[in-house]
Amino acid sequence: MSHSAPEPPLKFVQGKDEITGDEYDGVDRVEMSCGHAVDPENLKLWCRQLIKQGKYTLHCPAEVKGKKCGAQWLYPEVRRCTQLSESEQQEFEEGLAQAATRHYCNLKVCPGCRSLVERKDPAELRVHCTVCCAIRGVPYDFCWQCMQAWKGPMLSSNRCGNEDCRDPILHILATCATKDLPDSLIQGCPSIRACPECGLLIEHKERCKYVTCSRCDTKFCFACLETAQACEAAKPASWFKWCAKPLAPRQSRVPVWGPYQQRLLLQGQPLELETFQPRVVFAQQPVANEGRCLIL
Predict the structure, then answer these.
(1) Is Oxidoreductase set as a keyword in this record (predicted)?
(2) N or C: fewer beta carbons within 10 Å in the chain?
(3) What residues contact residue 288 under an 8 Å CB cut-off, 6+ apart?
């Protein structure tokens, strides 16, 4: 019979609290895996604040020479260092699970019952909420785009019948400001791009033209929208100044990030995403895009 190795004892040190900046006052601090010392109670408050902000990872806020440490603390380490009670463990674990689910899965909150809903068909806007149907006793459909009760044709992948229905992602991409990319000769680049693999919106803040998507881990060029590897290979001597291809225009369509692609990512298989081209489909009989409701 195999036994798991015992966890090493907590290490307490005499030093200032790196979360609050309070100097040593006679009470020892617990040393985290990144080497910074924190007060267990302040550690608990800090991590609870991160979870309330919708974060699914916990990180060190200590400043080192004017820069944030940012080292990730795994939940088991935080749980052990803060001595969370059973109710606190449940609170933290549910909060982290909800945040991770919202980040990695394409979920939205149903406007009727406030349940988390995932679409079966990522190309269809009309979604049928089974929870609302059970509560109200009548069918309830809403628009995935404007998040209002469905109006108009039975099926549509472009917009519903509500006057203010529009794709918020495409609107952001069409109206965002432009910027000159630092450390390059590229000017007038849109400051917000959709990841060419999964469609996550990414805003360029600083440093070079290459960014890495936090959802699908794709590294791509913010200017030409090619993968970083392809962009560098096409301009090996001066890839940091400009691209071999011209500046990509504002994006007018984005990839659909669905459950199938998420499974491929988790299995370590390459992603093959089709860009979604808006179209309108009319049907004689209503065919509901039944949402899978997740009560978390």
Answers:
(1) no
(2) N
(3) 126, 127, 128, 139, 141
